[in-house]
Amino acid sequence: MAVTGATGGVGCVAVEILAKLGFQVVAITGKAAEESDWLKAIGAAEVLARQSIDLTKIRPLGAATYAGAVDNLGGDILAWLLSMQKIGGTVAAVGLAADMKLNTTVAPFILRGVHLLGTDSANCPMSLRQTLWNRLAVDWRPDRVHDQVRTIDFEDLPTHFDAYLKGMVRGRTVVRIGRDSIPDPHRAP
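Above: the chain's sequence. Below: its structure in token form.
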């Protein structure tokens, strides 16, 4: 399994859960040099530098490498992932951090039976949400990424934009809308 944007909030949780489920996870990141040890500590079997992928030479079908993927980036990296799927591979498109356009062919779909899944959390029925939340709380609980959750106040949000735009952030960020609305798990009461 491949996970793009592996150091981000969704990516690091996906790496840990997939590894916990027994998958050999390849974490794909633009921060491979500085984050490789951490990604391996949360379950990645391998870390691949996104910069090492030549996206100018995407073929309709590349080497059948991955049984599936979670893609947080979209665009050319998603097209590349689709071309690299094994027969019956499934790619979940969960983000568009790189691009919302998808330039690909039907070859992975008709020659390898690849599945491209979208996400729609806004219209997900509450019963399915509850089932997934229960699994996340027990079976899929990501135990190793908890230290990478930070809480920032809404009014301070603009001071954090630069770090996000430069790709310098790891893990999840919770934005506290009101001072008392979300307790910070890292602050003493």
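The longest strand covers residues 85-93.
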